Fold this protein.
Amino acid sequence: MTITIEEEWKTKTKRRNFFYFYDGNKLRHISKIPEIKKIIEIKNENKHIIKYEVPENLVNNLIVFSTSNKTGNLGYNKCNLNEKNEIICNINVNIKPEMFEIDNNELRNEIEYMREMTSEMINDIKDFIKNYSLNDNFWIFMTKTRDYISNFDEGLISTLMFPDDNQKKKSIEQVMKFIHQIWISLLIAKLLNTKQIYCSVFEQGTRKSDPPSFIFKNESNLYYLWHEYQYIGETPSYLKNERSEFFDNGIFMWRRRDIMVIKSKTGETDFLKIKGNDFAKADLVIECKHLPIEKWLLNQEMFDNLLKSLRAYKEFPPNTNNILLISIFEIPFDYKNRLEQEGITIIDGFHPNNLNKIKEFENYLIKILS
């Protein structure tokens, strides 16, 4: 006798559910188990469904990993059959990341790199939340990023549950990017000797009508900080014929600014009371680079794309003359020199353990934002 199970991945919600087979040693996705047969696959722009036939004697070895529609919260349960031979997955089970079978050495290396690069950043983020008593008022709406910061192993499980290695790698890179950005955002507040925080809500793709991700105040000034701010508007006439990743169906969509900071002119903490012209110009835009430079810089096309997006920060509202590129890795002199000639300030080799670079960052912030 066989039992039919269904995996589902809805593209416009956070709902996912994937089945893994556990033999007491390793977790393997059911597509790698010869006795389990795929019988149908349905894929369109809204969802992806795969149905499998599972021999009855293997059902007790199945574990389902699922995320909810709205929150994306992760859950995992062991399966069995009830008296009607219906599959029920409601048995609590203890899962650890090392239980997943990983055959891809590149993926294994990326996981170790992520663990090494983000561990101190996550500790700093947690310390900041604790020191400013933000436990109930610090919001991260990028679900996986929130999972990793709360509990690294749980976050890693939410990545390893994807059957496809490319999906796992994409998840790792996205989470690393957001952790890096959040860490730098909080470090700005810390280095400016923040005394009070009025708002701390981090989400992906804020626009000019959205409140700042972060509103904080030191003894002298109030600051508004946006995470992943994006400018969307009509394509300028002189760029109509240009082909670029920044365009979509004639609408101008420039790459998101990782971090944007504006020093308040009025000291108003209620964003709804602030006039639009107070945001005509940004005091600082930061481009955050967390990956090795060969993944974003070391050829002419990569350099041209980077320069194009950095130049846009000077041209499109809220425009700025203060652009800082922060990289975890050292940038070769020739590329650094060419960027600096464009008026871009660079701090490379920047990570939690490089105190000299953090001091350099502090001096730069005091110069630009005090």
Summary: The longest strand covers residues 2-10. The two ends are 73 Å apart (CA to CA). Residues 105-131 form the longest helix (27 residues).
